[in-house]
């Protein structure tokens, strides 16, 4: 169906343990609207995750449930099932931030309605005849998930190492949400790409779907940040601009433009494999110490 790359992606030696969903819960009562103190731009740039991920990760789960019957490798199948459990929990955890934003005067509904439409209608199931057209659309979406997961792993690795957020007094509950999620993204970073390679792996499809995913993410992200800043009830929150983004990257409270630019040739390299980026050990260490993850573990082992 697609061209085959002469060089095959090879995973790094390190392996992840069996994937499991951690049934976390967060209490948002004490989290201020600007949870990075005095920095509404960076706060809202990161807050865009709460707009995109509930619908986006629900869509991952929807697509992957359709893919399960096509997986011939039992180990990959187990990884995909673990991935589905983790992404469903991520979607729910970010969704639960939205009522808190609304209570603080920032109603996200006008934006999330558009994101819901994008994932449920534009990227949803289409009435296609069985056979090649239906399989083509499924493979296209599997490749899109792999491209998006390159960025969730990138962001997960970034937030695990973003010490400037601690130094600037970022809210500990929001940091724990972001780092618990980020750590699980690093933990399962190879699953979507391995699935794509297992089912297709065509290089042209990888490039095409990366271009679609990257363009959509940049568009949705800058639009989401502008939406939040325009509707923030606080005075003098400023405006979104690329210059502000570059400055926040220099302060260490957002990823740098340079790191984002470098992520592009990484994914487009014919020898790319997600296991070469990020640290499973660091992710597991965070999950062993995360307040939300350890409370979830205690509830599980306590038989709750
Ligand atoms: Fe996730
Ligand atoms: Fe993920």
Hetero ligands: fe (ii) ion
Structural class: mainly alpha
Global morphology: globular
The string of secondary-structure elements, in order, is HHHHHHHHHHHHH
Which stretches are low in confidence, meaning pLDDT under 50 for 5 or more residues running? 1-6
Radius of gyration: 19 Å
Q: End-to-end distance, in Å?
A: 48 Å
Give the rounded overall mean pLDDT: 93
Question: What's the main sheet like?
Answer: none
Oligomer: single chain
Amount of helix: 55-70%
Strand content: under 5%
Count of helix runs: 13
For the record, the count of structural domains works out to: 1
Secondary structure: number of strands = 0
Protein name: Metal-dependent hydrolase
Pfam families: Metal_hydrol
InterPro entries: UCP07580
Description:
It comes from Streptomyces lydicamycinicus. Pfam families: Metal_hydrol. This is Metal-dependent hydrolase. InterPro entries: UCP07580. The protein has 304 residues and is mainly α. It has one domain (40-301). It is 66% helix and 0% strand. It contains 13 helices and no strands. One fe (ii) ion binds at residues 57, 87, 90, 152, 181, 185.
Key attributes of the depicted protein:
single chain, disordered N terminus, globular, 304 residues, binds fe (ii) ion, mainly alpha, 0% strand
